[in-house]
Design a protein that fits this description.
By secondary structure, the chain is an alpha/beta fold. The protein has eleven helices and 13 strands.
């Protein structure tokens, strides 16, 4: 077997979490895959995996080798795809990371159609609202909304949203509805912590836009949790509209200050490591989202 075959076998073992699972559908036995990894470790002169009776764990050397191996295999796959001029169907394992709000209200409803369209693609979905390092997390695609930090990653804009300010009828009945932006200073405004810019709400003022720094007793690291807090009558939120469009449609949340609110476009991004945007399964996934996610 070639070095690339050894790399592919090692990556499959790690991604599937064991030799038995990795052997399924490959024509290889778990024993053969175990010997492949042992041979690879002998050639490299380092231990890549720590084996126990219950699980496999990567050593630090294994983590470094895994990252490089994935990059090399992706480049090989991309090169072969270019040569075959699109005759190769997307296949293989796809790792996607996204936030909880986008996952629940946009991505999850689309996954059945994606998996039906690409039956040879398997998907590992990681959902977290903390900032992640795409390389460290070994993700193929990270989906994020809003402004991006400077980065060497490839960013593709797949849709745009708009932000809306809203609160529940119960909260407004108890505290009254703000009639002007500065009235918000006397209200409980719920914001994401760790994102200072999201606590500065923009409003039209004359010919320009002025920022109002809102405040409240509750902050959270999850946009989806803020939505639930607003539904429970705990305060006023400003979030991307897709997060609350169902609650607004049925009256559980009411839009506020629509004439004054400067609702800037909120880009939705697919972030990828350089070169990996050409891998067929990654390109198919991002193209699918750009096609199916409404503006």
């Amino acid at each position: 077997m070639s070095a690339a075959d050894d790399m592919a076998g090692f990556v499959r073992v790690v991604e599937q979490g064991g030799f038995a699972a990795a052997a399924q559908g490959t024509g290889m036995t778990p024993s053969a895959l175990s010997k492949l990894v042992t041979r690879l470790e002998a050639r490299l002169g380092v231990r890549l995996l720590t084996r126990t009776t219950r699980r496999l764990a990567l050593t630090p050397e294994g983590e470094a080798y895994l990252a490089r191996a994935r990059d090399i295999l992706a480049l090989i796959e991309a090169a072969e795809t270019e040569v075959t001029a699109g005759r190769t169907r997307p296949r293989g394992h796809l790792r996607v990371n996204t936030g909880s709000a986008f996952a629940r209200h946009r991505l999850l409803p689309l996954l059945p159609d994606f998996l039906e369209r690409y039956p040879e693609v398997t998907l590992d979905l990681s959902i977290t609202d903390r900032r992640v390092d795409l390389v460290a997390e070994q993700a193929d695609v990270v989906l994020r909304t809003g402004a991006l930090d400077d980065s060497a990653l490839v960013a593709r804009r797949i849709a745009d949203g708009r932000r809306v300010i809203c609160a529940s009828p119960a909260y407004l009945a108890r505290r009254g509805a703000p009639r002007a932006p500065r009235d918000l200073l006397d209200h409980e405004c719920l914001v994401l912590h760790g994102y200072a810019r999201l606590a500065a709400w923009p409003f039209r003022e004359g010919e320009g836009v002025a920022l109002l720094n809102v405040r409240g007793r509750l902050t959270c690291d999850s946009a989806d949790a803020l939505r639930q807090m607003a539904l429970d009558g705990l305060g006023i939120i400003r979030v991307t509209r897709f997060l609350v469009e169902d609650a607004i449609a049925d009256g559980r949340l009411l839009p506020l200050l629509e004439d004054a609110h400067a609702s800037e476009p909120v880009p939705i991004w697919a972030l990828m490591a350089p070169g990996r945007q050409h891998v067929p399964r990654i390109r198919a996934f991002v193209d699918f989202l750009a096609e199916r996610i409404p503006a």
